[in-house]
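Researcher: Go.
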Amino acid sequence: MERIKKLFGIRYPIIAGGMAWCSGWELAAAVSNAGGLGLIGAGSMHPDILAGHIRKVKEATQKPFGVNVPLMHPEQEGIMNVITVEGVKIVFTSAGNPNKWTTFLHDRGIIIAHVVSSARFAEKAEKEGVDAIVAEGFEAGGHEGREETTTMTLIPLVRKATSLPLIAAGGIATGEQILAAFALGAEGVQIGSLFAASEESSAHPAFKKMITETGEGGTKVVLKSLVPVRLIKNDFFRRVEEAETRGATVDELRNLLGKGRAKRGMFEGDLVDGELEIGQSASLIDHILPAEKIMNKLVVEYDKALEQMNNCRLS
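Model: Structure:
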């Protein structure tokens, strides 16, 4: 874990996922102030909006923070320009090949972590020169890889495939799970759903409440013929699932999805017709807490679990 803490200049090797519609400046600053690494989720922002969030984070914390950039973003050039102009020092990239931006960002002194869903993609990312790997298992919320590899299997596979600092993601919401990730070879964790339900999250209060009420089996991955995404099982999800079951075409599914569906659900609070992206760990979340309390809770849980494991022997 020391490599992750040193790389990002943070106290705890815990990163808050840069989630569209959830990870605004307030959450990023709160997590960074609590000793982790806060990320602004640029996926739901135009460049000018991102610039405003970056400036607000700078006003709210002196600690390191970063920006998550999905490489499918239609305005990625403008987003990257804002990042460099505003002096951001850490960028997490996802949903694409980082080769286009690695040299550009490194030449400007920016640290790059890239999110992958397989050991094969981890090897490619290392060859492209990224500084750290985020290995995200199938339990995660939002857009998924197509491999359907769970975190518990993915982390040791990626650990064998790359020597880079490794961050585990997908289904992590407790200190005990952080310890398990470290036992598998990870050196840090990225946590999304737990922080999506935090007080500082920019998600709609109704969506946060629904996260805390989502039990075991309450999410599922759909839209596999487009871009796989894990959603809460609301009315919109059921319409998508029905369409896929009867063999709807890609165009039908694209029309059903429409535009602004995720904003409608997560940011505006339409729990019926909105797209509600969240991970399986929602079933472990039952309270909406400030980010600082979440961080403290994770540390206490981790230390307690580590103490208990030190007393466990197989023989």
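Model: The CA atoms of residues 119 and 158 lie 5 Å apart.
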